[in-house]
Write a structure and sequence with these properties.
mainly alpha, rod-shaped
């Protein structure tokens, strides 16, 4: 019974590591998109401001 229990603990640890990696990847992907959208919107606003001053 301890072999099965130990195997389950190892399996659960591996699953937890995999889930953590997925969360980190997902968070990084969302952050990259957020930065990209902010840069695009900033560029549009900068261009509109520059054009309005001309």
């Amino acid at each position: 019974m301890t072999d099965t229990s130990e195997a389950n603990k190892m399996r659960n640890r591996e699953i937890a590591r995999n889930e953590e990696a997925k969360q980190i990847t997902g968070s990084a992907r969302v952050s990259i998109w957020a930065v990209a959208v902010a840069v695009i919107i900033g560029g549009i606003l900068l261009t509109l401001g520059w054009l309005s001053l001309r």
